[in-house]
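Q: Hand in one record:
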Amino acid sequence: MKKTYRRWTTAAVLAGVILIPLAALAQRTGYSREEFERRRNALAAGVKEGMIVLFGEPLPHPGSAFRQDNDFYYLSGLEDENAILVIAAPTAETTLFLPRQTPREMMYEGANLLADERRFAASGLAAVYDLSFFDEFVARNRSRFAVTWFRLQPRDTLDTDRGETLLFEARKNRNPYNDLPSLDSHRLKKFLERHPSFDVRDVTPHIDALRLIKSREEIEILRRNGRLSAEAVKRAMLASGPGVYEYEVEAAALHWIAKHGARGPAYPPIVGSGPNSCILHYARNDRKAEAGDLLLMDFGATLDYLCMDITRTWPVSGRFTPEQREAYEIVLLVLNACLEAYRPGVTDAQVKDHVDRVLNARGVDGRGLTGGIGHYVGLCVHDVGPRGLPLQEGMVFAIEPGLYDPQKNLGIRIEETVLITRDGCEVLSADVPKEVEDIEKLLARRK
């Protein structure tokens, strides 16, 4: 029986009689093919000469679903593993290189684009080749591609930006037994060993400039994610209460986003009650909330590779104490003053000036809060792009003022994800209540 089963399986794979490939399912996104073509055209026009080489994620990380390298996905929309993408400038002609799969690999993982003619025809790519042909392809095109664009800066991931990737790599390397080169630096070294005459330049600033301004299709996905993530946080608020564990509150939000099409959270959810509300990146989520506690939840989904970032703080018992309310309303005042100031052309300093004027007009001590412009949000929850720029239409970022007093177990943060529009801003996460009365009204619905 064992031998017969093996023959049947191989024959079925070769004949294409297999279940729907995982890679094909992954192609059902909110993007059009034209969106990826537009991005490649813009990047190719920006670098003007040579070829752009991007590497896909080799394999899934153990224990988690496969997620493509952000830059690779941004320019291709493909989730095939272990791929290389070459974009020729200035034509934007795009060639993909993939490993040739065995029948057994196709049975377990689904066929990649090299073996799936139907999906290749819909991809918008010029050609797809066996991965073993990559170096020969480069050599054959030496006269066209003597200038080669690599990503010479650290990668970003789902929840760490390029700078954070570099920082965490340095922390890892404190231990000399962990001191290995990054995958990107190893790839560059191998390429230059095989093609030493090529002029290698950094494509990262060109990609970051494109990713900084969100397209119409990206904005629609972010709006959907804002509504989805907001409802998840509301469900979590309704699941909270004295005696409820933090992980139960987390579970309510995770269930909602999974049920409605998100791949998962954009970062490890933070659900901190009582003293844990003062730990900025707390993620154990294992304490039992008690009456009188504040509960701080920082949560967002990843939907079609785009992230959301929302934080709300609420009283576990259902009503703020006078001291909690006073501190909360300071944070809320700063947040709302920031939102009032956001519009194209405004700088971080101008936002802070506006916040300062609002606080002074109200006679409120901001307790050190200054407002400003937060971190970008996109494919990474701490998305790429140069900091310190005046605001531009199409930018998306999170603003998260907070006050923390560990001696009183009082941690408050309110965070919104914001889109800059033609004449102001749109709060993508606005569906979660943040006014004191609205929060208490929602919590009163708990059974």
